[in-house]
Amino acid sequence: MESITIAIPSEMPGGLDAAVGQHFGHCDIYTIVEARGEEIISVSTLPNVPHQQGGCMAPVNHLAQNGVNVLIAGGMGMRPLMGFQQVGIQVFQSSGAPTVGHAVRALLMGSLPAFSTEFTCGGGH
Length: 125
Known about the structure:
This protein is α/β, with parallel strands linked by helices. It is built from 3 helices and 5 strands.
């Protein structure tokens, strides 16, 4: 079974107990979770990059360069969503999960909806 690397925009200091950040492109930090099946293998953090250079694509490229396969986010506009799809990162809605840990467990159990180009929450970057 392959492992996946999940990024979740987080409030400081990050980690499974942190609140899920609502604006993926403007969060201070991402919690990075490595998982295999329904098991969490490791948890780390990754600082975000400045949003000015590269606009909405800066965080997309930053996460892709750090091996992320999946992003859990509260909302997102069409441009970054399409960017994530172009770099092969699947994007799922956090669906109001109160903490990063709750969001990750919901994803691993298959209960988070995927974002699609037909549905975006708009402007959530």
